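Quick one:
INPUT:
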C-alpha cells in the first residue's frame, strides 16, 4: 500500500474541515441534535451540493463521484472531528452499498441517484442489538438473526401481491427520519429459514417510527415498527445477502475507525490546549511530567489507531478484511482520549454540559452499537485462525 494521499484526497479533507468549522461548532451541534431529525438538514444539503459527500463512493453512472473507500473514510475522519450529526453513516456507508450490491437495475436506477444528490436518505433496519452480527463484525452472520426463526425481530411473509413485513427494530441509525428503509427480515420459518433485505418507503402505510433517546445524541436512532407493511425485495431472492452484509460491514468498520480517529485526534488537541492554559501551583498543568506522560500515551495510541484505520480503508478497497480489528483499536483510542480529556479538564470536565462529554458519549455509544471492543478483537482473531489448535489451560 502507498501511505501517501493524493492531492484530491487532501483537498477533500481540507474543504470538509473548513466547512464543518464554519457550520458545525458546538453551539450549532447542540441545536442540530435537538431537532426532530437529529441533524442539520441545511448542512446536509450543503455537503451534498458543494462536496458531493453522499455519493462520494457511488459510481458516476448513478450520479456519484466514483471515489474509493479510502476517500469515504477520510471524509468520515473529518466528520468525526466535529462530531457532525448527519445521515452520512446510515445512507452512504450502510444502505447505499447494499442497494448497489444486491439491487436490480431498476432499483439502482430509481434509488441511487437520489441518494447521491442528497435528496433521499436511507437507513439499514436490523433488530437491536444485532447490527454487529448482521455486519459480521463480532460473529458469523449466517444465522437467523433477523427474527431468530420464531416470533420476534422482523418477519416476512409472501402474499398474493408481494411481501408483507411485521415486527420491530430498535436502535436503527436515522431510522426515524430516513426516506427509505432497507429492512432485514426473516423468511421461511424453521425449515427454510433465511434472511432477505426489503425496501420500504418512509411513508409506507403501517410503518410507525419514533426517535429514541440515545446515550450519544450526535448519533440519532429510531424505533421502527412494521405492522403488516408492504415491501419490495432488494434484488432477487437468490442473492447473497449475508455475503453482501459482511462486505459492507468490513468497509463500514474501516470508515467508523477513521471517524473515531478523527474524534480522538480533536479531543486530544483540545486537551493539550487546555493543559497549557489551566494553572495549578502557579504553573500550567501541561508542564507537569505526569500530565505529559498521560497525554503522550494517548498520542501513541491515537497514531497506532490511525495507521490501522488507514490500512483497513485501503484493504477494504482491495477485497481484504481488516475493518473489525481497526475499529477495535480506534474505539479504544477514542475512549482513552475522551477519558483523559475529562480528567485533565478537572471540575468542569465532569459536567455533562462540557464538550468533552460529547466525545466520551460518542466513544461509549459506538462501543455499544458496533462493539464491544473485546468481541471485535475476538472475532478478528477467529477469522485469522490466530488460536486455531491452541489448548486452553484450566
Amino acid at each position: 500500500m502507498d501511505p501517501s494521499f493524493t492531492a484530491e484526497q487532501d483537498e477533500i479533507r481540507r474543504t470538509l474541515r473548513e466547512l464543518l468549522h464554519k457550520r458545525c461548532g458546538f453551539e450549532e451541534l447542540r441545536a442540530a441534535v435537538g431537532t426532530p431529525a437529529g441533524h442539520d438538514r441545511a448542512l446536509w444539503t450543503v455537503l451534498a451540493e458543494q462536496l458531493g459527500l453522499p455519493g462520494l463512493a457511488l459510481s458516476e453512472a448513478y450520479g456519484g463521484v466514483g471515489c474509493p473507500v479510502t476517500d469515504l473514510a477520510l471524509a468520515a475522519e473529518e466528520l468525526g472531528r466535529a462530531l457532525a450529526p448527519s445521515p452520512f453513516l446510515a445512507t452512504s456507508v450502510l444502505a447505499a452499498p447494499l442497494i448497489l450490491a444486491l439491487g436490480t437495475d431498476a432499483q439502482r436506477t430509481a434509488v441511487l441517484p437520489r441518494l447521491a444528490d442528497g435528496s433521499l436518505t436511507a437507513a439499514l433496519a436490523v433488530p437491536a442489538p444485532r447490527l454487529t452480527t448482521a455486519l459480521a463484525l463480532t460473529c458469523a452472520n449466517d444465522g437467523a438473526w433477523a427474527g431468530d426463526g420464531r416470533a420476534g425481530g422482523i418477519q416476512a411473509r409472501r402474499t398474493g401481491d408481494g411481501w408483507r413485513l411485521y415486527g420491530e427494530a430498535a436502535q436503527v441509525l436515522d431510522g426515524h427520519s430516513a426516506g427509505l428503509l432497507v429492512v432485514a427480515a426473516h423468511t421461511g420459518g424453521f425449515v427454510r429459514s433465511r434472511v432477505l433485505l426489503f425496501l420500504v418507503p418512509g411513508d409506507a402505510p403501517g410503518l410507525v417510527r419514533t426517535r429514541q433517546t440515545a446515550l450519544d445524541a450526535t448519533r440519532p436512532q429510531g424505533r421502527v415498527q412494521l405492522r403488516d407493511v408492504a415491501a419490495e425485495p432488494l434484488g432477487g431472492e437468490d442473492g447473497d445477502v449475508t455475503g453482501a452484509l459482511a462486505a459492507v460491514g468490513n468497509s463500514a468498520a474501516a470508515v467508523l475507525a477513521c471517524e473515531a480517529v478523527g474524534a480522538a485526534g480533536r479531543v486530544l488537541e483540545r486537551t493539550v490546549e487546555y493543559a497549557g492554559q489551566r494553572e495549578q501551583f502557579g504553573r500550567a498543568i501541561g508542564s507537569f511530567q505526569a500530565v505529559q506522560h498521560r497525554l503522550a500515551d494517548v498520542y501513541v495510541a491515537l497514531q497506532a489507531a490511525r495507521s490501522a484505520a488507514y490500512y483497513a480503508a485501503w484493504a477494504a478497497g482491495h477485497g481484504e478484511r481488516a475493518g473489525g480489528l481497526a475499529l477495535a483499536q480506534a474505539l479504544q483510542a477514542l475512549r482513552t482520549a475522551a477519558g483523559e480529556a475529562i480528567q485533565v479538564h478537572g471540575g468542569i470536565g465532569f459536567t455533562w454540559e462540557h464538550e468533552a462529554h460529547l466525545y466520551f458519549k460518542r466513544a461509549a455509544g459506538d462501543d455499544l452499537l458496533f462493539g464491544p471492543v473485546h468481541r471485535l478483537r475476538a472475532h478478528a482473531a477467529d477469522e485469522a485462525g490466530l488460536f486455531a489448535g491452541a489448548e486452553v489451560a484450566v
